[in-house]
């Protein structure tokens, strides 16, 4: 997979891609992440990328010219399977979206900033408008990092233990059950006996029951109950 990210503040999201799992995935050649500074396509001496919105609503909007120039240059080098735009008015991102997008080869993410981007860019290029939750961030960069992380960790070979993404919360529509490690007893608190029993089948049943219990308590909406 290759992810290109267009931003007016690429410095803001360089570090997540230079650490931990995301770094290793790139080193293993499983993913390439390229950050593009929109200011390089800015207009005039001051490399202007934004302007006041027509209609007098407060706030700056990213102008179409730099975005069209940047996106068209990237498109001249490869075809994108999806062009995402991070915005609080987009579709709320979930694990299903992550699963399907993790299969794509070339993904372009445009980070919104200020009051957003000129609507013509959205109309002309964007295939998916995505929100990562019902709150407003100061820019789309952190959302782009969140989305990238969710996609990259699903690429086969990225996680060391291949099964661990399968047992994530949401993969079976349920929250994950509680997990324990050693010691089996700590300050008088014991690990549930079943987990140390060695009965694989019973453990699986217990995990499923716990996942259901947790989901019913915390996220009844996932069970279709509200
Ligand atoms: N940009 C600002 N807020 C956002 C959000 N909640 N999701 C995605 N992009 C955003």
Distance N to C terminus: 38 Å
Please write the string of helix (H) and strand (E) elements. EHEEEHEHEHEHEEH
CATH topology descriptor of the largest domain:
Alpha/beta knot
- What is the number of E strands? 9
Q: Give the count of helical stretches.
A: 6
CATH architecture of the largest domain: 3-Layer(aba) Sandwich
Q: CATH superfamily membership of the largest domain, which one? A: SPOUT methyltransferase, trefoil knot domain
Instruction: Return residue spans where pLDDT drops below 50 for at least 5 consecutive residues.
Output: none
Rg, nearest Å? 22 Å
Bound molecules: adenine
- Main β-sheet description: 5 strands, parallel
Q: What would you call the shape?
A: elongated
Work out the helicity level. 25-40%
Count of separate structural domains: 2
Q: State the CATH class of the largest domain.
A: Alpha Beta
Strand content: 15-25%
């Amino acid at each position: 997979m290759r992810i290109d990210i267009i931003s007016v503040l690429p410095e803001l999201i360089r570090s997540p891609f230079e650490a931990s799992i995301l770094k290793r995935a790139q080193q293993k050649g499983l993913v390439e992440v390229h950050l593009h500074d929109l200011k390089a396509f800015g207009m005039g001496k001051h490399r202007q990328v934004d302007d006041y919105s027509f209609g007098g609503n407060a706030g700056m909007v990213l102008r179409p010219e730099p975005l069209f120039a940047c996106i068209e240059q990237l498109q001249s080098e490869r075809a994108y399977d999806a062009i995402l735009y991070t915005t609080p008015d987009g579709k709320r991102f979930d694990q299903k979206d992550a699963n399907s997008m993790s299969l794509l080869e070339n993904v372009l993410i445009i980070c919104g900033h200020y009051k957003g981007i000129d609507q013509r860019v959205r109309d002309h290029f964007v295939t998916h408008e995505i929100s990562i939750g019902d709150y407003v961030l100061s820019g789309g960069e952190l959302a782009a990092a969140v989305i990238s992380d969710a996609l990259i960790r699903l690429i086969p070979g990225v996680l060391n233990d291949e099964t661990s993404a399968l047992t994530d919360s949401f993969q079976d529509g349920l929250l994950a059950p509680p997990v324990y490690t050693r010691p089996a007893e700590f300050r008088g608190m014991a690990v549930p006996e079943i987990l140390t029993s060695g009965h694989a089948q019973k453990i699986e049943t217990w995990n499923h029951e716990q996942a259901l219990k947790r989901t019913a308590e915390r996220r009844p909406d996932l069970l279709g109950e509200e």
